[in-house]
Amino acid sequence: MNLKSHLIFTLYTIYGILLKVMASKGKARGISGQYPLVQNMTVTEGAKANMTCRVEYNDNTSLQWSNPAQQTLFFGDKKALRDNRIELVHASRSELTISISDVTLTDEGMYTCSLFTMPVRTAKAYMTVLGVPEKPEIDGLTKPALEGDHITLTCMTQGSKPAADLRWFRNEKEVKGAKEVNASGKTFTVRSSLQLHVDRNDDGVAYTCKVDHVALTQTLQQATEVLEVHYAPRVQIIHSLAVPQEGQYLKLECVSKGNPSPDPVMWTKDGGELPDLDRMIVEGRELTFTSLNKTDNGTYRCEAGNHLGTSSDEYVLYVYDVPTTLPPSTTPPLHSIPPDPTALLGTHVSVTGNGDPNALGQHGTDHALIGGVVAVVVFVTLCLIIVLGRYLARHKGTYLTNEAKGADDAPDADTAIINAEGNHAHAEEKKEYFI
After folding, report:
1. Of 46, 71, 97, 191, which is least surrounded by CB within 10 A?
2. Model confidence over 131-170: pLDDT tens digits?
3. Where are the beta strands (DSSP E) in 198-331?
């Protein structure tokens, strides 16, 4: 073999190897791109479900959807099962999408998408159907209930999948109940019980049972019952005055709470009928005194009842005197005498202490006498002080020696001394003696 032939053989060999490599890559791409792709789904009962099957690479091979019973739904764009709920959404080489309307619990299961290659390749998608719980119902309520009764409220809902949860509310506050779950085919029946010891505080209270479930995203399922409780009345008297006085207007109200309502009520005084119906007016639950006086003192009783019992309350009425004050004097005093603070203070205490006009005059006279004596003593003392002051002022002077007394007319000191002695002798002569 010459060089030219050897070169040609080598080129063909390389070309064959390249063709084999390209063929193997194309085959691998076709195998990996011809597997159908699907997804599991969850749908609520009664809603619509869209099921999609896709392939990345398809060489004109048909796609097919089958239900859990292995019945063909669609082969390409050809409908195979006569079910008006199943419709074609989209069909192409790379996708087959169908829809199932008004889904029921029987539609739940494993669906299969098939790609008819050699061999046939499949993919499975599971459809989960949520069972919507029915509206709950509350049983066990008797109307009306009596105070002290023990009752059991039961809330029940059916058709949930998975099992629903029941919650109790007393008005707006949640209370705990006892839950019970029973399976019924693919769905569940759920019950919740609430034990109540009924009292008067339950009268008019709303008990609500709410359903919690994953399928209830936009709707609310609940039931409500309002309790009516009958109970014996309780009575209380409310008065309009804290310190009733003569001549005032007084209203006593008999507040009675019971179910059924205890109407009318009965008023009595000291165990008997009301004595003065002209001033004591009864209107409904109210007893009104138009003008109080001392004869109204006593114990007033209000009583009310219904078929479950009676209740009463008492109010002790004591009518006080109207506060009295002395009228101002209209005669002016004869002399202008300044008021004595001690006397005024004594008068005020007397009025506040006993309010006796006679006692007021007696104490006022005593204090006035004491004040007069004190004034006289003060006046005498002032006079003595004035007289003593004048006496001391008149005898105030300068005391001189004998020399000084004779120095007024003497020309020298010796003469002054002689004059002083002379004056002294003259003064001795003028002394007078009284026996």
Report:
1. 71
2. 999 999 999 988 899 999 999 999 999 999 999 999 999 9
3. 206-212, 222-226, 229-239, 250-259, 266-269, 280-283, 286-289, 298-306, 309-317
| DSSP assignments along 129-147, one per residue | EEBPPPPPEEE---SSEET
Token code pair at residue 169 = 């509310």
Query: Among residues 115, 80, 123, 118, which one has the least CA distance to residue 98?
Result: 80
Which SS3 state, helix, strand or coil, does residue 179 take?
strand
Let me know: does 64 contact 75? Beta carbons within 8 Å. Answer: yes
Assessment of whether the complete model's pTM goes beyond 0.70: no
Condensed to tens digits (0 to 9), the pLDDT of residues 8-66 reads: 444 434 534 443 444 344 443 444 557 899 999 999 999 999 999 999 877 778 899 99
Q: What percent of the chain has pLDDT over 90?
A: 54
Q: CA separation (Å) from 87 to 33, 48, 65, 125?
A: 27, 11, 12, 18
Specify whether the CB–CB gap between 36 and 46 falls below 8 A: no
Give the per-residue pLDDT at 411. Answer: 59
CA 230 – CA 145 distance, rounded (Å): 6
234 Cβ contact partners less than 8 Å away, ≥ 6 residues apart: 256, 257, 258, 311
d(CA 295, CA 291) in angstroms, rounded, equals 11
| Sequence-separated (6 or more) residues with CB below 8 Å from residue 393 | none
pLDDT of residue 155: 97
The 3-state DSSP class for residue 245 equals strand
What is the bridge-based pairing of β-strands 229-239 and 145-146?
A: parallel
CA torsion sign for 350, 356, 361, 363 is negative
Q: What would the two tokens of residue 256 be?
A: 């009675």
The type of residue at 207 is Y
